[in-house]
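YM 10:42: Transcriptional regulator with XRE-family HTH domain sequence, as discussed on the call
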Amino acid sequence: MTTMTRQGRPVGELLRDWRRTRGMSQLDLSIEAGVSARHLSFVETGRSRPSPELILRLAEQLDMPLAERNTMLLAAGYAPAYPSRELNDPELAPVRAAVRQILDGHGPYPAVLVDQHWHLVEANPAVALFTAGAEPHLLTPPINVLRLSLHPDGMAPRILNLPEWRAHLLKRLHQQAVTTNDPALYELHEELRGYPSGDDVAVPISDDAASRVVIPLRYRHGDQELSFFSTTTLFGTPLDVTVSGLAVEAFFPADPATTATLQALAKPAAGTG
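YM 10:58: structure's back
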């Protein structure tokens, strides 16, 4: 009898869906995982129950998120292999300390910690530059930083190159949704696609050095134009579901004027206390 998940999905069906998502044939996957194509076929059709070791080996070759690997194990009747702790769990104290060090050390430039669905987990004080002027409904937890960025009540009216920044974020989100096969990310992508694109606003194209290398975020602050590029930091070889979904998004000044402005904005805060 085939073991089912609570949603009624057998392990073989889940495996087949992930294999197809990755664009692999049964033969491709069997070779990569070191298992016979016949046995893999039996697993997918429910004629054979895979061992937990085989499930994890197949999941590794399919580059499945840790949470989905647990789902596969549960579907086959096994215990999850990866814990999913809350971020305030004592065992994750070193992770929290590392994140805090990254965020604080990045000042006076903005940096945020987000989860796998782009919800804001932590931020440094410089992020107030981006949240200033946003409507309260976008700043009520859980705050989704992509929604905050592209919503017309959020940062969007102050993003001078909104069409290209919007296209960049949507492409990145779609790639993440495809990679993780996460319905929540597909839903977020569809929501964000419905926001105004800003294509009707003509803004001169910047010719600074950063614009010729990466897509910058050109942001209006008062009567000034600030320019940023961003980097993403992930945890290497995570073994916890929560940690595997965390990312630090750090923004760097793309020109000397932005550097000077952010350093000047930070001086009053540095002198208080």
